User: What shape does this take?
Amino acid sequence: MENDMSSGRVQPSSQSQNRRRKTTIVIVGPTASGKTALSLLLARRLKAEIISADSRQIYRHLTIGTAKPSEAERREITHHFVDILDPRREYNAGEFGTGSRMVWEDIQKRGKTVIVVGGSGLYVKALVDGFFGGPGKDPEIRDRLEHELEQVGIDGLLKKLAAVDPSSSKNMSAEPKARRIMRALEVYYSTGKPLSVHLSEQEHRSLTDFIMVAPLWERLSLYKHIDDRVGAMMKSGLLDEVRWLKSEGYPSSLNALNTVGYRELFEHLDGKTTLEEAVDLIKMNSRRFAKRQMTWFRRDERVHWIPVRSEVDIEKMAEKVLDIS
Assistant: This one.
């Protein structure tokens, strides 16, 4: 032990501090690829705690459609950031990054292994690399931007952003999204400094010791797995779950409910589609979502993609993860 003469406290040596730091396992990948099953297998082997990096599992009442681990599994293994917010509560990756870093530090200090699991790319990035959350929403600025969007459209907003923050504008021009553009403008109007400058000034603190893994499915096999899971969700009562949310006064306009599975069944309950059409849409939109997730995570060269062909291979994958961790 090393003596801290200035405070009179005995500090642990750097060697003992490093011993307490265990490798963090980050499991990413597309929906229905077996991330949860893999996380549970590894958590049992390592006596680990799990941090969910899923932007929808964080909400209460969204259970079947988000494929949450069961209550029994959560009693067996400690899960963080599951079932903690009401769907009316606005939440973002910046808040998650701050909160999850604190939880990660606490688990590490207790000498336990952390497993991060989730398909929400920004949430994973917020925890692993740090993420600029920016100032809170300013109602006046947001109202003004909403009005400007109605007046000049998304291209007009993009031009406004280009005038004050060319770097952010360039990053958004390939696939402009009003929400992201308005947020970048809001950061500028609130702080007087472009979002790109905030990001460049941010102290990026990647987790010091982690591995990032993802199950790699053949595309058609993954799509079949997605279709099968949607069918299983319907049999488990997903329609009743959505019907309950509607009866409790949760509007489909909530960001939490702008989610594959919930969005389509709300439209069905509103009489816009038949149930069969809604289920087909859930399957199609889930496949599209999986494709977008694959695109996101393939950009990260740190991800170890491990081929799997069936649920049985998830157990073999767990062994491979243990070998490289």
About this structure: The beta strands are 2-3, 10-11, 24-27, 49-52, 79-80, 114-117, 210-216, 303-307. Residues 139-201 form a domain with the Histone, subunit A fold (CATH 1.10.20.140).
